[in-house]
Design a protein that fits this description.
The protein is of the alpha+beta class. The chain folds into two domains: about 210 residues, Orthogonal Bundle (Endonuclease III, domain 1); about 100 residues, Alpha-Beta Complex (Nucleoside Triphosphate Pyrophosphohydrolase), CATH 3.90.79.10. The protein has 13 helices and eight strands. The strands form two sheets. Strands 1, 2, 5, 6, 7 and 8 form a six-stranded mixed beta sheet that branches. It has a two-stranded antiparallel sheet with strand order 3-4. A hairpin with a 2-residue loop joins strand 1 and strand 2. Helix 2 crosses helix 3. The termini are far apart. Pfam families: HhH-GPD, NUDIX_4.
Length: about 325
């Protein structure tokens, strides 16, 4: 593997995304933040809209752990998968309490098993933090790396255990940081799903699947169902009722209530749709004017802008404002 490692490092120095901000720091916290943000989210989105504003609001683990959850969710607004933000906040609180007990500032542990025990940190995130923040000789296993391994070894339906074994066998233990960053970049720019650029790849000489790369791995067919809901906007004195969401989906965000059957005195004002990863949400929106306050919390549209709400609830507010302005 020595010659392959040399090719990988040479490619990375010339073509790798070496200037990404989380690759140019040594503080484990922003590296950890980037790993969480990049779960299910493209680099471009994180870089352009979320990474720097979040760090500006919460520049340290301590400031994140001391912040109220609502503030954290507000800065995460639009990034989706809000459990990531909740677990990030919870992990910061755990580390803050541990640091306070020891009389030191909160810090991320370097040990993979200890990292794995923190809220929201899975096996790959723990490995990524260990490799990138602490330069440990371990591999990472995100989607692009999985695709590379499948093509290198002609694996159509690999299991996680085998992939991790292969990854550990390939990792450059002398320079795991550049190696892992390079592997992710190769997967993102060369070993892409549809039209891989095999002739430019530093792994081409050892790739068993290069003649039929699109065969590996086997693409899973999935259909995205549509979920339909009736959404109620309860209005009292020009203020809109919102509730704190519970349950797994969008937990902790403010939102409008859904109803199986619209209230008799309510009027439909239109529909909004929003696509999530696993389903499409289609909402028929109703307005109900209350003579007396029947809900716990009411907000003006301007006040709602300062709350942590989902994209679909933002669309509902816009629909309501467009309706009353007509």
């Amino acid at each position: 593997m020595k010659s392959i490692h040399e090719k990988i490092h040479k490619w990375y120095k010339t073509h790798g995304r070496t200037d990404l901000p989380w690759r140019t720091v040594t503080d484990p916290y922003p590296i950890y933040l980037s790993e969480v943000m990049l779960q299910q989210t493209q680099v471009k989105t994180v870089l352009e809209r979320y990474y720097f504003p979040f760090l500006e609001a919460f520049p340290t683990l301590k400031s994140l752990g001391e912040a109220p959850l609502d503030a954290v969710l507000k800065h995460w607004e639009g990034l989706g998968y809000y459990n990531r933000a909740k677990n990030l906040h919870k992990a910061a609180q755990v580390l803050l309490q541990k640091g306070q007990a020891q009389g030191i500032a909160p810090t991320l542990p370097s040990d993979i098993d200890t990292l794995f025990k923190l809220p929201g940190i899975g096996k790959n995130t723990a490995h990524a933090i260990a490799a990138f923040a602490f330069r440990q000789p371990v591999p990472v296993m995100e989607a692009n790396v999985k695709r590379i391994l499948c093509r290198l070894h002609r694996l159509r339906t690999p299991d996680e255990k085998r992939l991790w074994k292969l990854a550990y066998g390939m990792v450059d233990k002398e320079n795991p940081f550049d190696y892992n960053q390079a592997m992710m970049d190769i997967g993102a720019t060369l070993c892409i799903p549809k039209d891989p650029k095999c002739d430019l790849c530093p792994l081409e000489s050892i790739c068993k699947g290069k003649n039929t790369p699109r065969t590996y791995p086997l693409k899973k067919k999935r259909s995205v169902p549509t979920r339909e809901e009736h959404i109620m906007i309860s209005v009292y004195n020009d203020r809109l009722a919102l509730t704190k969401r519970s349950g797994k989906f969008l937990h902790g965000l403010w939102g409008f209530a859904s109803a199986e059957v619209p209230l008799c005195a309510s009027e439909p004002i239109g529909e909004v749709s929003h696509a999530y990863t696993h389903f499409k949400l289609k909402c028929k929106v109703w307005v109900h004017h209350e003579l007396e306050p029947e809900q716990e919390s009411y907000f003006t549209p301007e006040e709602i802008k300062d709350l942590a709400v989902s994209k679909v609830d933002e669309k509902i507010v816009k629909l309501y404002l467009d309706t009353i302005q007509q």
